Amino acid sequence: MTFIEKLAKAWATSGSMLTVGLDPDPQRFPAELQGHPDAIFEFCRAIVDVTAQYACAIKPQIAYFSAERAEDQLEALCDYVREHHPDLPIILDAKRGDIGSTAQQYAREAFERYQADAVTVNPYMGSDSITPYLEWDDKGVIILCRTSNPGGSDLQFIESADGTPLYLRVAALAADRWNGNGQCALVVGATFPEEIAKVRARVADMPLLIPGIGAQGGDIPSTVKAGLDSQGTGMMINSSRAILYASTGDDWRVAAALAARQTRDAINAVR
Ligand SMILES: O=c1ccn([C@@H]2O[C@H](COP(=O)(O)O)[C@@H](O)[C@H]2O)c(=O)[nH]1
């Protein structure tokens, strides 16, 4: 099954457009996991188990694992998700971008080592830096377009001679040149709903990965209204810290599940 088929199935069966982001920060872990040798794996596994029913995907952010020398725990987590939640797409948030020969290795890292369903990539180095990921014809390639951070405007709003801002050039390249396999998606931040609407208008029903609700303060109703596709779906709306650290007390699992359910419901209230 391709990434897009798996995502469409997850949207339909879960009735959710929430993506649960896995940004495990050991300093914020509950007391019961402090000092545990596999704390990152155990924390993420528990979060996935209690939130999977409310989600259309999970998004582990690789930096949180590699900074802790915990890539083995990320591998174990991906194995666990495939075995216990086989219909839940795994989006590896790595934001890779490099020359083609190096990009080939990054693609192997995402799709062979972690067996992710999709990976995020940075398009700034252009087509030849994206091609190695596209050669994996059943895997999702999720391209940074209009990021959620304030500094994204420094470059992404730069206009070309015809007045098109850079982020819309990226959207056009993704829709017109890079999406030959139909497995591309774009990252557009919930902190910029006007730009979500412009990207949606440019790329038709291409899925959008939308971080920026929750801890970054993006508005859910504006985001959903701007990003719905022609089928009334089309988004993977990510929340990480607001779910992961909803409580650091003994009730952390219940609090994470509740935060995920409430976020799913807030998204669905606007559809
Ligand atoms: O434009 C972008 C692209 C990626 N991210 C990532 O999403 C999560 C957001 O975490 P929250 O705790 O929900 O703020 C994080 O992994 C970022 O690396 C993004 O925020 N913006």
Automatic annotation (TrEMBL):
Entry keyword Lyase: yes
Where is the signal peptide, in residue numbers? none
Q: Per UniProt, which keywords does this protein have?
A: Decarboxylase, Lyase, Pyrimidine biosynthesis
Q: Which GO terms describe its molecular function?
A: orotidine-5'-phosphate decarboxylase activity
Q: What is its EC number?
A: 4.1.1.23
Q: Which CDD domains match?
A: OMP_decarboxylase_like (cd04725)
- Tell me the active site: K95
- Report which reactions are catalysed by this protein: orotidine 5'-phosphate + H(+) = UMP + CO2
Q: Which residues form the Orotidine 5'-phosphate decarboxylase domain?
A: 17-258
A biological process (GO) annotation for this entry? 'de novo' pyrimidine nucleobase biosynthetic process
Q: Which family does it belong to?
A: Belongs to the OMP decarboxylase family. Type 2 subfamily.
The protein in question is named: Orotidine 5'-phosphate decarboxylase
